[in-house]
Design a protein that fits this description.
Blueprint: H1 6-16, E1 23-24, H2 25-35, H3 40-43, H4 54-68, E2 72-76, E3 79-82, H5 84-91, H6 99-102, H7 106-112, E4 116-119, E5 124-127, H8 132-135, H9 141-160, E6 164-166, H10 172-175, H11 196-203, E7 207-211, E8 214-221, H12 229-240, E9 247-252, H13 257-264, H14 267-270, H15 277-280, E10 281-285, H16 286-293
C-alpha cells in the first residue's frame, strides 16, 4: 500500500495511546507500520532529502500535531501519553483526525497561526521553527543518555569558565542529574534582543554559554544517526541572523566525525549569506569534551581553549 501521510496516521496514533499508558515513540512507529501493513521496503523509503525515512517522519509530524492540540502529552523526551481531551475525542468515534478537526482547539489554532515573519531584502516571508521533538528521533536510550551526559559536561565546563548557561527546557531534568549548577548560573530566560523567531530557534540549541547579554559559544550535541537536526538549527540561526558573531560547535561521537563533515558541507549549508556553515561551525568529539572537563585549571582559562579541542570541516 502507499505510505500514509501524517493526517492519516493521527487517528491510529491516538487510538494506540487510548489505553492510557505511557508509550515510547520508537515503539509506536513499529506498531503503526504493522497496522498499515507496510512492507520492509516501504518502511525504509527515504524522503527526498535522503536523510529521514518517510513513514517515521510522518509519524513524527502526526505526534506533533496531536501534542499541539493537547490530545497527547509528551511525558518525557521520546515518550507520550493520551490526555483527557484525547480520550474525549476518541469517544466521538471520528472517521478521521485531520487539521480541520484539530482547528477547533484554541491551543492548536494558536500554534498553527504563530508562524514567524522574516524580512528579506526583496520581501517578507513566513517561516516556522519546528520543536526539537518534531525532528529529533533518538537512535536508542543509550545514545540519548550519552548526549545528556555530554550536555551536562559542556554546561559544567562553561560554568567553571564563568559563563551563564542556557539549556533547552525539555532537557533540563535529565541534564541536571549530571550537572549541579550554582545559583543563577542556569538561565530561565534568554537575555537577548532578537525577534521572536530567532529567540525560538536559539532556545532549542542544546547548550549555550553567555556572558551578560551576549552568546559566546553554542553547542549542538547530536544523538541521531543522521547528525542532521543540530546542523539544521545552526543553519536556521545563521540564515535568520547572518551578522551574528557567534562561535558554533557540532558535538558528536568520534564514529560520526566523517558524517558530520559530509553533512555540514551540503550545498544548502554552503550558500548561506554570511559564509558556508562549514566555516562557522566546528566539530568537537565526545572524547574531546570528556578531556576538557578534566582540565584542572578551567577557571583560569578563556573559552579560546575550546579551539584546541575543535576541528574544522575538511
Amino acid at each position: 500500500m502507499a505510505i500514509p501521510d501524517f493526517q492519516s496516521i493521527m487517528l491510529p496514533l491516538l487510538r494506540l495511546a487510548g489505553d492510557g499508558q505511557e508509550h515510547r515513540y520508537r515503539e509506536a512507529i513499529d506498531k503503526l507500520a504493522d497496522e498499515f501493513a507496510l512492507s520492509e521496503a516501504e518502511r525504509k523509503t527515504l524522503l527526498p532529502s535522503g536523510v529521514d525515512e518517510q513513514f517515521d517522519n510522518s509519524v513524527g509530524w502526526a505526534l506533533t500535531y496531536l501534542k499541539k492540540a493537547l490530545l497527547l502529552d509528551p511525558t518525557r523526551r521520546g515518550y507520550f501519553r493520551i490526555t483527557k481531551r484525547g480520550r474525549e475525542v476518541l469517544t466521538t468515534n471520528p472517521d478521521r483526525i485531520n487539521m480541520k478537526l484539530l482547528d477547533q482547539f484554541p491551543e492548536y489554532k494558536a500554534w498553527s497561526s504563530s508562524r514567524g515573519k522574516v524580512r528579506r531584502q526583496d520581501r517578507e516571508v513566513t517561516v516556522t521553527v519546528p520543536d526539537a521533538t518534531d525532528a529529533d528521533h533518538p537512535i536508542d536510550e543509550k545514545a540519548l543518555r550519552e548526549s545528556f551526559h555530554i550536555q551536562g559536561l559542556l554546561a559544567q565546563i562553561g560554568e567553571r569558565m564563568g559563563f551563564s548557561i542556557w539549556l533547552p527546557k525539555r532537557d533540563r531534568s535529565a541534564i541536571l542529574r549530571v550537572w549541579k549548577p550554582s545559583d543563577s548560573v542556569l538561565l530561565d530566560i534568554l537575555p537577548l534582543n532578537y525577534d521572536e523567531t530567532t529567540i525560538k530557534t536559539i532556545e532549542q540549541i542544546d547548550v549555550i554559554w553567555l556572558r551578560k547579554r551576549a552568546i559566546v559559544r553554542a553547542f549542538e550535541v547530536e544523538h541521531t544517526t543522521a547528525v542532521y537536526s543540530g546542523i539544521l538549527r545552526m543553519a536556521d540561526l545563521l540564515a535568520l541572523q547572518p551578522n551574528m558573531d557567534i562561535r558554533l560547535h557540532l558535538v558528536a561521537p568520534e564514529a560520526r566525525r566523517e558524517k558530520v563533515f559530509h553533512e555540514i558541507q551540503r550545498p544548502v549549508f554552503s550558500l548561506l549569506d554570511r559564509a558556508p556553515l562549514s566555516e562557522c561551525c566546528k566539530y568537537v568529539s565526545y572524547n574531546s569534551v570528556e578531556q576538557l572537563a578534566k582540565e584542572k585549571h578551567l577557571e583560569h582559562l578563556s573559552d579560546s581553549v575550546l579551539d584546541e579541542y575543535s576541528e574544522d570541516a575538511e
